Amino acid sequence: MNSKLDEYRRKRDFSITAEPDEQPLRKRRGKSALSFVIQKHAARRLHYDFRLELDGTLKSWAVPKGPSLDPRDKRLAVHVEDHPLDYGSFEGSIPAGQYGAGDVIVWDRGIWQPHGDPRTAYQSGKLKFSLQGEKLGGDWTLVRTHLRGSGDKEQWLLIKERDQQARSADDYNIVEALPGSVLSEASIPAKPAKPTQAAPREKPPRSGVPLPDMLKPALATLVDRPPSGDWRYEIKFDGYRILARKQGREVRLLTRNGNDWTERLPQQAKALAALDVGDSWLDGEVVVLGDNGLPDFQALQNAFDRNLPKDIIFYLFDAPFLHGEDLRDQPVEARRAALKAVMGSNRSPALRFSEDFSAAPQDIIESACALKLEGIIGKRVGSTYVARRTPDWIKLKCRLRQEFVIIGFTKPKGSRSGFGALLLGVHEQGDLHYAGRVGTGFSETRLRELHDRLKRLERKTPAAVDPPTGAEARDVHWVKPELVAEVEFAEWTREGVVRQASFVALRSDKPAQEIGHETPQPAESIEPQRNDVAMHRAGKAVVAGVSISNPQRIIDPESGGRKLDLARFYADIADWILPFLNDRPVSLVRAPDGVEGEQFFQKHAEKLSIPNIRHLDPSLDPDHPRLMEIDSLKALIGAVQMGTIELHTWGATDDAIETPDLFVLDLDPDPALPWRTMQEAAQLCLSVLDELGLDAYLKTSGGKGLHIIVPLKREAGWDVVKAFSKAFARFMAHQLPDRFSATSGPRNRVGKIFIDYLRNNRGSSTVCAYSVRARPSLPVSVPIARDELHDLHSAAQWTIFNLRDRLDALNGNPWDGYANRQTLTPKMWKQLGAKPPRT
């Protein structure tokens, strides 16, 4: 084991804390720049942990006030024990009783470049370096002082050097301006909550499977009417979704976003501790029943506000894990039967089982609406438990009702107190848009309480990109977009605002960043294919007329994605991807055992029979089996049936295969580089292409980098096109050698971005636009417009599970104007300082 980490290990009990255990000192995986991370840590006192990678560990300092961009500020940095490299991605809560108990987020990360020999400088106590992070950049110094802190710890100073990144503290405080995580949507409040006591983890039963520490809930798709098929329906409870984790006698109650509400629900936790379910994850909703015996959301909020948990009932409706067994792949009716059986031993009024109804779905929804319930939930018979939104769980609402982000409020009129109306917003395509007002549904108490909270969030400018103007904006107070309101309304107008809105309640279980325009899906879009039930019983399914064997097989354990999900995804986006596949040779990345198994790159048809795929003329690639083309929906789904995940296409069409109609620049970063560096690199490349007079188009790679596609007129051969792309890469590397490399190999891109031009060979290929990648979470390579680059937060931010939301929100084609009409002119070669090859 690594002796440098002895103190780190001595201070922690890894049977309790989720912090990474020490690993043996390992060689770096390939060549990569030195990483740094700054973690915001709400221990006894909020502080920032500044960590620099050196000699296989993270050298660490605790900075009480956090970094400052003002060179006049000499921030105290207390030297603490080395941490393992894996700690650089740790976010979570360190349990009470453990060293450093409290919440931790990754506030910034990236690479650091020492000025001179870092080991000598570190030992001498004066370490100068540059940072390239998501938030911090430029030159910095850590200098050791002669003062001693508590426990004889060394006290250093963290100082920003005077450069272009320096800013006066009078004008800007970066820790206040940018408080959140760069890895997630997590944040830490100004006054951190007291960490909850955690008991040591017990080992799961040998006969069972390891109980996950966290579990995301299955979510329902909003539909406009009951679909056909075999479904079971339950009441849609008007409450808070809660997942319960029970291991031994320890019970944790978590919201859908992972917030721990165990202390807020003590009776429910006690009842679950007594329930004979073994090590389990149980899914349900907490509600308060009104005088009429029906769920009352306002009464639930009052119960929380007044600390009356005894009034709250936890309705359980699913058991993803029960008695240490993983039931997620079992049919929903089997999971619910097992849950109902164990609920027979329940003696607590705090727990109940959510019954389903066998009547016709239209009768159920009409009865629910007559009782003034929110609606009903339907679950497809035979469906598995998948931790995301799927069409196997649906919701039908009695009234239009959804969450909105509060972006402002108006002054009250007449005798009204507090405020007049709330201004609402929803997210679409990453932007916050104005969505109307709500001025009714408030009690006097709620007006005062909400007004007090809003005043603390006031800001000078609107957070929405399209706020009301003129008379509509008069007397409006804008607020930070942090609070979420649930609102009932009559309809959406053509302008995208709500009519006849009435306030229901604030929601504290859903983050504002996730609130979007909720549109019901047509029932036809989720209805089963003909003979689906029989196919399911036979272990098969049918998508687009193609039989899918082993449809329930998990191909991505991280997301729970199944082979059937992949097939349905490609069928759903066929209109988007087929134009990029038609008329081009295609290479397939097959992963028969999923993304964690062996992967095969297949360029030729060989002996593998892929249903409906087109085999091209043998003369296109002599001395090899035929090249392939996917020119139809059935061919696309046929490839999935044979284990294909990724689709790669040539840069030429099969009718003019010797004259490419595009070239690709693959921006491939050192993995340690922050995402901001990738965005800047893409913008620099696009600017140079603009100077050359070449239109260029961006897409995410679905991995770490970005692809720049330059369409061409079909006239130059492969050698010329490759030489031009190589000249461009060398030009960028010559102009900005600290940022770019034109030479392949990990050692040549340390702290840099390799501009990969090698995909422009004859026979080479690039992952197709809208292709899925054979990687965890099943990300997708997605075309984007240039003006989206700034707001992009990852090359893998779209997956098979969320791309449809993006496509539905688009106002047009992100590659509008794409045309293969450009010529590589002598002037362009000259601008790059290169000459075309002789042909």
TrEMBL record:
Give residue spans, biased composition: Low complexity.
189-199
Q: What is its EC number?
A: 6.5.1.1
Needed cofactors, names only, are: Mn(2+)
Q: Name one Pfam family in it.
A: LigD_Prim-Pol
The reply on keyword Isomerase is: no
- What keywords does the record list, in alphabetical order? ATP-binding, DNA damage, DNA recombination, DNA repair, DNA-binding, DNA-directed DNA polymerase, Exonuclease, Hydrolase, Ligase, Manganese, Metal-binding, Multifunctional enzyme, Nuclease, Nucleotide-binding, Nucleotidyltransferase, Transferase
Q: Which GO terms describe its molecular function?
A: ATP binding; DNA binding; DNA ligase (ATP) activity; DNA-directed DNA polymerase activity; exonuclease activity; metal ion binding
* Protein's name in the database: DNA ligase (ATP)
Q: Which organism is it from?
A: Pseudomonas flexibilis
Q: What is the lineage of its organism?
A: Bacteria, Pseudomonadati, Pseudomonadota, Gammaproteobacteria, Pseudomonadales
Chain's gene name:
ligD
